[in-house]
Amino acid sequence: MFWPKMETGARLVEVTPDDIGGEVHIWAVIDEKEYRGIVYEGMLYTQLREESTGLTVTAVSEMSQIEAKHSREPHTVKFIEDWDAGDEFLWDTYLKGFRLFVHHFSNGEKKIIMAQNTVIGEARPYNGPCEQTQIKAQNERGMF
Q1: Which residues fall within 8 angstroms of residue 83, CB to CB, at 6 or more apart?
Q2: Which residues lie across from 29 on neighbouring strands?
Q3: Average pLDDT, stretch 106-129?
């Protein structure tokens, strides 16, 4: 499983890409019931940035590098153009275990993260918006 199971969606509370360290840290409220931390490890590319905070993920799927190369959807075209991703690059990332995770949002957008692995944190009960400040403080102290 590379994303927590959800019925109605996951509202992104915090998105922190670390381009140097090769990770993306996400805090999400799943179905307005629980907090989850999700970390994409071995991140090579992300379209999820701080600006993605507030969006609601309705599904996450996996796409192969070959599918991305032949897709004409805006999120995959942007990925191919950003990397000038030719066949050799796509094949190399596939052999090194990189996966393309496609995030589907309630507003119809799709965004890609290319990473090697996801780590899903333990569920914590969600007790409303005031708790977001506490979670953010814990995250800053490394209590992910």
Answers
A1: 45, 89
A2: 11, 35
A3: 89
Torsion of CA 73, 79, 71, 2, to 10 degrees: -90
Q: Is 9 left (phi over 0), alpha (psi -120 to 50) or beta?
A: left
Element (H, E) at 92: helix 87-95
Q: Of 51, 55, 56, 50, whose CA–CA distance to 10 is shortest?
A: 56
Rounded CA-CA distance 136/35 in Å is: 11
pTM above 0.85, yes or no: no
**Whole-angstrom Cα distance, residue 107 to residue 3?**
19
pLDDT digits (tens, 9 = 90+) for 54-79: 999 999 999 988 888 888 888 888 88
